[in-house]
Write a structure and sequence with these properties.
alpha/beta; Rossmann fold; Isoleucyl-tRNA Synthetase, Domain 1; 3 domains; four-stranded parallel sheet; four-stranded antiparallel sheet; 17 strands; 43% helix; elongated; binds zinc ion
């Protein structure tokens, strides 16, 4: 392992920034609540997955190995998650499309994976599907009943929150507040209105239902994350991540279930990202109907990595406002970086670091290790690029180094921008010759010819430099509607 530097993270549990100390210095155990695959994941959902990916990359940058589990929810999600009411989202989509729930899940999982790859989100170490964890969820429920935390009422099994005195430790909610605010699941026969379902009886018309000791039913939607985390990561995780909407009830209930079953602390650090907002105070959600996908961005000429870069402009705990103007400005800024990389690559290659290069690297690491201060980290990168005293080899080495966290394909895109085919090379040579002979008319003619083929040439003190204009997508004029 390389030399390690302190990492500071904001822990929702306790609501303060703490120095991160893993249980085992060789491997950090991270769990992220994954997508519910009854529909597209919108760019607001991807803000959460990008945040989790950046966290993982920061840990790896610091020399840690990371075991990262992120689930696929393909059963048991209701339209009103807090109240436990409404229709099953998977089944509603299946009926609407005249497909089986499994077909719906496979379809949207595939699209999620495609978008994840376009955004350079690393595949998690394990990606369990809820439908494959029914036996573990049933045995966890049995364990909770056995330890006095669960009770069965007519085929439903509830968690008895009065038995778990620290219920509310993450969200700050008290059981009294929840009842008074009617933020509790409905259900007949519950001992307390704040109790939540571990297992729900399912009528025969349900498309997905499972045999259990309490009759045919489905798991409550909080149960899967506890069951999978216990199975794949053990009793105590280092870090659990999710969107801030998951703090209550989802993560509060995960704690109650996991700690009720094991008697051990479930997660040592809880990290939550704030929302992407389309306008003012509204979070981007499927039910509001203002969703945008990675595909929608592509249609508008936005490179997926421009969206990744855009998310770095706000700290993960700050709500970020989405506007097309802001996203396009982010793309312009990222493309300017790519152009600078392309320029650098035409005169040098990455090499070791000088002392001043190493100081820049330290500034970058300090930013990312300070609770993932990506806006500062990006500022370090941009200041570095405009530093005229830093050798180009250093700049390229630093770009390569920073990209382990930023995941913007900086060198790869830069190299793609300076590709010139044999025919273009020949024209470039002729043009260099023409310039040497001060034949400006021919030089201009050849420049236009190259430009028509997608190669933009400029003349510098070191000779011709070029970038391709046909590699990166360009913003298209907006179609009707779409998000404005
Ligand atoms: Zn979860």
């Amino acid at each position: 392992m390389t030399e390690q530097f302190p990492i500071y993270l904001h822990n929702t549990l306790g609501r303060r920034v703490e120095e991160f100390q893993p249980q085992n210095p060789d491997e950090v155990l991270v769990y992220t609540c994954g997508p519910t695959v009854y529909s597209y994941q919108h760019i607001g959902n991807f803000r959460a997955f990008l945040f989790a990916d950046t966290l993982r990359r920061v840990l790896e940058y610091n020399g840690y190995r990371v075991r990262h589990v992120r689930n696929i929810t393909d059963v048991g999600h209701l339209t009103n998650e807090t109240l436990g009411t409404g229709v099953d989202k998977m089944e509603a989509a299946a009926r609407r499309e005249n497909l089986t729930p499994r077909e719906i899940a496979d379809h949207f999982t595939e699209i999620f994976h495609r978008d994840q790859a376009l955004l350079n989100i690393l595949e998690p170490t394990a990606e369990p599907r809820a439908t494959e964890y029914i036996p573990q969820m049933i045995s966890l429920t049995e364990r909770l009943i056995g330890r006095g935390y669960g009770y069965c009422v007519k085929g439903d099994v509830y968690y008895d929150v009065d038995k778990f005195p620290s219920y509310g430790m993450l969200s700050g909610n008290t059981v009294e507040d929840l009842i008074a605010g009617a933020r509790v699941e409905v259900g007949e026969g519950k001992r307390s209105p704040a109790d939540f379902a571990l297992w729900k009886a399912a009528a025969p018309d349900k498309l997905m239902r499972y045999e259990s000791p309490w009759g045919m039913g489905v798991p409550g939607w909080h149960l899967e994350c506890s069951a999978m985390a216990l199975d794949l990561l053990g009793e105590t995780l280092d870090i659990h991540t999710g969107g801030e909407d998951h703090v209550f009830p989802h993560h509060e209930d995960e704690i109650a279930q996991s700690e009720g079953a094991t008697g051990k602390r479930f997660a040592r650090y809880w990290l939550h990202n704030a929302f992407l907002q389309l306008s003012g105070a509204e979070k981007m959600s499927k039910s509001v109907g203002n969703i945008l996908t990675v595909g929608d961005l592509a249609e508008r000429g936005i490179h997926p990595l421009s969206y990744r870069y855009f998310t770095y402009q706000a700290h993960y705990r700050t709500p970020q406002n989405f506007t097309w103007e802001a996203l396009e400005a982010a793309q312009t800024a990222l493309y300017r970086i790519y152009d600078q990389v392309a320029d650098l690559l035409q005169s040098s290659e990455p090499a070791g670091l000088t002392e001043s290069g190493a100081a820049v690297r330290n500034a970058f690491r300090e930013a990312i290790n300070n609770d993932l201060a990506l806006p500062e980290a990006v500022a370090v990168l941009n200041t570095m690029l405009s530093n005229s005293t830093l050798p180009p080899e250093d700049k390229l080495s630093l770009l390569d180094d920073f990209d382990r966290v930023l995941a913007l394909d900086l060198l790869a895109v830069g190299r793609g921008l300076i590709v010139a085919g044999p025919a273009e090379r020949e024209i470039l040579d002729r043009r260099a010759q023409a310039r040497a002979e001060r034949d400006w008319a021919l030089s201009d003619e050849l420049r236009s010819k190259l430009a028509a083929g997608g190669l933009d040439v400029k003349d510098t003190a070191q000779g011709q430099r070029w970038t391709r204009s046909d590699v990166l997508p360009r913003v298209q004029a907006p179609q009707t509607g779409a998000g404005h």
